[in-house]
Amino acid sequence: MSKITWIIVALYCATVIAQDCKPVNFGSDSIVCECNSTYCDNYPDPKPPSEGEFIWYVTSKSGQRLNRTDGKIDSRPKNGLTVRIDSNKLYQNMEGFGGAFTDSACINIKSLSQETQDNLMNSYFSTNGSNYNFGRVPIGGSDFSTRPYSYDSTPGDKELKDFSLAKEDTEYKIPLMQKARKINPSLRFLSAAWTAPPWMKNRKIFVGFSYLLEEYYQTYADYIVKFLETYKSYGLDMWAVSAGNEPFNALLLIFSKINNMFWSPGNACKWVINNLGPSIEQSKSNNTIILMLDDNRVALPWYMVDVKIWHSEALKYVKGIAVHWYTDTVIPASVLDLTHDLLPDKFILMTEACVGDRPWVYPKVNLGSWQRAEEIVDKIFENINHHVVGWVDWNLALDLQGGPNWVDNYVDAPIIVDDEKDVFYKQPMYYVTTHFSKFVPRNSVRVHTNSEDKNVIATAFKTGDYKVIVLLFNKSNKKKSISIVDEKVGSINVELTENSVHTILYNYDA
């Protein structure tokens, strides 16, 4: 075959691999991209840019979805507004991005044909998609289940003789988690229990205020370890487990309808020190790390101040602090800085976020909402610029109602499934999150950025293979002419579409 023929074949293969969004407008302020059994948009990983060049991806309210442009780096800035990159000033190492394998998410994914399922899973976990490297899984049921349940419903079973996984695990979560790990072998799983089995608590209920009885502290630690070891037997080792999901929900009437169990900082630490930590250390899952809090940043920094001053022995076992985003609009990001300064050797990881969660917000699912994408991406930038090492979204996929959810706590998701049509819709929030997850690899280091325009939010990273990743968010409804200035390489002069998110890649010299 001639050299020219090989070039033609290579170009043809490139075009069939890269597939554009199939837009659908549901009457919101932007579009969704529809995928089915035979077609789904994808975005192959780019080859590293050549010296003096950059690669630029754009997603916008007007309908661009990871649209790519290649450009040349200039020797000087040509636009009035600058975003300056200082790759000598370093911050946190990044751990990654992902979503949650809730019962609801997995039920929705499994409701599709096998071919459509494959397209959805590849959309999240392949290098042609979001390249997610985190998956969160509830231990037992959550509100995003079709029923309340635990793994042992036998009162007084301290030896956990009746412990067994549920059909939700064996038929839904485990097969899809195995599939995701096969697509992306670097995928890490983290887990959290919403509650202990009710018979271990002061009130024998899944919802409403309750706490773990001290006589069952060791039994509950054994219960968590049994979960870890059982999932490990399926090839699904847990990178991390938290001390418990949103322990303060039990104190709030509006949220106490969700599966929950209260932990004070002191009792949580006591349990970690005397029970959970040693039990994990002595188990087959002794590489699993422990995360504290797993609740909203309204609890910071005071929660970790309590831990450090009064229960510092827990820090022997605790490697990170898990936070949720639900109070981010009212609690300043400075509490993350205070927490980092208090415990600089403990990473902070965002482990849950979703939109449409407020009781007064309707519709719960808003197909094509750019506003919701902006809510998400604005907080991703904010959290990362305040020491957070990664972002794990909530449900991977929900139905058109925003469920199923056994307590009717419906919300939105990056992917919405319509099983009757055997299709799924990628929301704008899917794409703005992918701007991070696809291009910012694990162990990237955040570097200093300074944007002269308050409506152009910036963050940037450098990798071990001498690549710089710059992310920009133009939150205004006007175009912005921006010069990205890096003294090591020159200036990248670009025009940012109104209401848009951008990822720009270029190389640097060591």
Automatic annotation (TrEMBL):
<comment type="similarity">
    <text>Belongs to the glycosyl hydrolase 30 family.</text>
</comment>
<dbReference type="GO" id="GO:0005102">
    <property type="term" value="F:signaling receptor binding"/>
</dbReference>
<dbReference type="InterPro" id="IPR017853">
    <property type="entry name" value="GH"/>
</dbReference>
<feature type="signal peptide">
    <location>
        <begin position="1"/>
        <end position="18"/>
    </location>
</feature>
<dbReference type="GO" id="GO:0006680">
    <property type="term" value="P:glucosylceramide catabolic process"/>
</dbReference>
<dbReference type="GO" id="GO:0010605">
    <property type="term" value="P:negative regulation of macromolecule metabolic process"/>
</dbReference>
<comment type="pathway">
    <text>Sphingolipid metabolism.</text>
</comment>
<dbReference type="GO" id="GO:0006066">
    <property type="term" value="P:alcohol metabolic process"/>
</dbReference>
<comment type="pathway">
    <text>Lipid metabolism; sphingolipid metabolism.</text>
</comment>
<dbReference type="GO" id="GO:0032006">
    <property type="term" value="P:regulation of TOR signaling"/>
</dbReference>
<dbReference type="Pfam" id="PF17189">
    <property type="entry name" value="Glyco_hydro_30C"/>
</dbReference>
<dbReference type="GO" id="GO:0004348">
    <property type="term" value="F:glucosylceramidase activity"/>
</dbReference>
<dbReference type="GO" id="GO:0042391">
    <property type="term" value="P:regulation of membrane potential"/>
</dbReference>
<dbReference type="InterPro" id="IPR033453">
    <property type="entry name" value="Glyco_hydro_30_TIM-barrel"/>
</dbReference>
<keyword id="KW-0326">Glycosidase</keyword>
<dbReference type="InterPro" id="IPR033452">
    <property type="entry name" value="GH30_C"/>
</dbReference>
<dbReference type="GO" id="GO:0051246">
    <property type="term" value="P:regulation of protein metabolic process"/>
</dbReference>
<dbReference type="GO" id="GO:0007040">
    <property type="term" value="P:lysosome organization"/>
</dbReference>
<feature type="domain" description="Glycosyl hydrolase family 30 beta sandwich">
    <location>
        <begin position="443"/>
        <end position="504"/>
    </location>
</feature>
<feature type="domain" description="Glycosyl hydrolase family 30 TIM-barrel">
    <location>
        <begin position="95"/>
        <end position="440"/>
    </location>
</feature>
<dbReference type="GO" id="GO:0030163">
    <property type="term" value="P:protein catabolic process"/>
</dbReference>
<dbReference type="GO" id="GO:0006914">
    <property type="term" value="P:autophagy"/>
</dbReference>
<dbReference type="GO" id="GO:0016241">
    <property type="term" value="P:regulation of macroautophagy"/>
</dbReference>
<keyword id="KW-0732">Signal</keyword>
<dbReference type="GO" id="GO:0008202">
    <property type="term" value="P:steroid metabolic process"/>
</dbReference>
<dbReference type="Pfam" id="PF02055">
    <property type="entry name" value="Glyco_hydro_30"/>
</dbReference>
<protein>
    <recommendedName>
        <fullName>Glucosylceramidase</fullName>
        <ecNumber>3.2.1.45</ecNumber>
    </recommendedName>
</protein>
<dbReference type="GO" id="GO:0016758">
    <property type="term" value="F:hexosyltransferase activity"/>
</dbReference>
<keyword id="KW-0746">Sphingolipid metabolism</keyword>
<keyword id="KW-0443">Lipid metabolism</keyword>
<dbReference type="InterPro" id="IPR001139">
    <property type="entry name" value="Glyco_hydro_30"/>
</dbReference>
<dbReference type="GO" id="GO:0005774">
    <property type="term" value="C:vacuolar membrane"/>
</dbReference>
<dbReference type="GO" id="GO:0005764">
    <property type="term" value="C:lysosome"/>
</dbReference>
<keyword id="KW-0378">Hydrolase</keyword>
